[in-house]
Amino acid sequence: MAGPTRVGARMAWRTGRLVAIVDETPTARTLVLDVPGWPGHLAGQRVDIRLTAEDGYRASRAYSLAAPADGDRVEVTVQRVPDGEVSPYLVEVFAVGDPVELRGPIGGWFVWDPAGPPDPVLLVAGGSGVVPLMAMIRARRAAASRVPFRLVYSVRGPEQAYYAAELRRRLPADGGLDVAYVYTRTAPEGWPGPPRRITAADLGAAGWPADLAPLCFVCGPTGFVESVADLLVAGGHDPSRIRTERFGPTDR
């Protein structure tokens, strides 16, 4: 697992090259990049990706890293935003072999390190907010960690769920990982109950009791994150043990 890196190394723009694409949903894909000289990162950190037009105009956006450190390999999952400046290119045009500029890693609070305390971990995701949480799940697996993880994933419908096949698989290294879904618009056939927003009952049934003092990571749209954080505090969780990452209506 990568440790802290110098600010200069993290904030220098590097040129990466796309080596693979994984389609996650009809409007989101994971981009696998080779970035020579990548300084490493922790699960939960993010990167800036910058595009430069032929006329010199530049646009950059921040994206969460989707996988733990693996040499010069970097993975991000990008959701196409209609009328966006960056995401439509990355999802619809960017092809294997193409270069792109990026810098990072960025952020140091919303991270999970397998070398840290063995406290149970609760992950609560809203939509594409599952990306940095999936990096934590994958980091746990790569380290063969036995820290108990629970993921509560709120998503509009099953077709919008990222990493669905991977989360369905139960590998030997996943012992202690539990996954629960909350569907807000459309639910799979035979699902018990109608679609709805996440509730305190969901967090109570699929999460950890507050008296176990789990470390909680909540990521998603601003309204979702604020609602879940309030529910966790109302349920007795220590606010200092709740870490949040949110995004608004920008081109993500």
From TrEMBL:
Pfam families: FAD_binding_6, NAD_binding_1. The keyword Cell cycle does not apply. Keywords: 2Fe-2S, Iron, Iron-sulfur, Metal-binding. Its cofactor is FAD. Coiled coil: none annotated. One of its GO terms (molecular function) is oxidoreductase activity. Gene3D superfamilies: Nucleotide-binding domain of ferredoxin-NADP reductase (FNR) module (3.40.50.80), Translation factors (2.40.30.10). PROSITE patterns: FAD_FR. Residues 11-112 form the FAD-binding FR-type domain. This is Oxidoreductase FAD-binding domain protein. The lineage of its organism: Bacteria, Bacillati, Actinomycetota, Actinomycetes, Frankiales.
